[in-house]
Specification:
The complex is a heterodimer of chains A (109) and B (115).
Chain A (H helix, E strand, L loop, with lengths): L8 E5 L4 E6 L9 E6 L6 E6 L2 E4 L4 E4 L5 E6 L8 E7 L12 E6 L1
Chain B lengths: L4 E3 L2 E4 L5 E6 L6 E7 L6 E7 L2 E4 L8 E4 L6 E5 L8 E8 L9 E2 L3 E5 L1
Parallel strand pairs in B: 2-11
Antiparallel strand pairs in B: 1-3, 3-8, 4-5, 4-9, 5-6, 7-8, 9-10, 9-11
Classes of the chains: A mainly beta (109), B mainly beta (115).
Chain lengths: 109, 115
């Protein structure tokens, strides 16, 4: 099973771009990379998913290098409301979706 | 329904009692996952179903935990002879397809407290 590693926490300021990198060295050929956001007292919420290169939606971008052993979630111009825990998941071939510890992002004014 | 519905939202029980936690998925969602989340930790995988078939239960902590989804829709997670260490938020999530893509939709969770 592909294991993910990401920083435990990050601090940023309003208006800055935040990049959170996740490593997944054992990613398999068929695995997709998915990121979730979780606010306190809520369930995780899907942000973005990708397989390779770059994916962009209305809230974030996901950069995946050619070897796919890592991925970077990019949040443009963060606000206080982006303070949350961000999880990187690799969709294992067996579909046992395992969350790691996540990255706690603190956005300061 | 409009979203994943879990019940009860809060459950307080005494040690040794059995509890049943229910998950009502979004209509048509094929895959259903159960997670347990302790305060300050990420969701811990317990088990998942595609339709009515339990595909993986390797995350269930011990044989006091079981889950079923008999008609491929509503699922029940049962904990027998509860212990204080079972206290946690139990989260259910579903998605439309059984393949390895697609987002998970989470319910609001069932907070279990074992006294």
């Amino acid at each position: 099973l592909a294991k993910t590693t990401q920083p435990i926490s990050m601090d940023s300021y309003e208006g800055q771009e935040v990049n959170i990198t996740c490593s997944h060295n054992n990613i398999a050929t068929n695995d997709y990379i998915t990121w979730y956001q979780q606010f306190p007292s809520q369930g995780p919420r899907f942000i973005i998913q990708g397989y390779k290169t770059k994916v962009t939606n209305e809230v974030a971008s996901l950069f995946i290098p050619a070897d796919r052993k890592s991925s970077t979630l990019s949040l443009p111009r963060v606000s206080l409301s982006d303070t949350a825990v961000y999880y990187c998941l690799v969709n294992n071939a067996g579909n046992m979706l395992t969350f790691g510890g996540g990255t706690r992002l603190m956005v300061k004014p | 329904g409009a979203g994943v519905s879990q019940s009860p939202r809060y459950k307080v029980t005494k040690r040794g009692q059995d509890v049943a936690l229910r998950c009502d998925p979004i209509s048509g969602h094929v895959s259903l996952y159960w997670y347990r989340q302790a305060l300050g930790q990420g969701p811990e995988f317990l088990t998942y179903f595609n339709y009515e078939a339990q595909q993986d239960k390797s995350g269930l902590p011990n044989d006091r935990f079981s889950a079923e989804r008999p008609e491929g829709s509503i699922s029940t997670l049962t904990i027998q002879r509860t212990e204080q260490r079972d206290s946690a938020m139990y989260r259910c999530a579903t998605r439309t397809r059984e393949m390895n893509t697609g987002e998970l939709f989470f319910g609001e969770g069932s907070r279990l407290t074992v006294l």
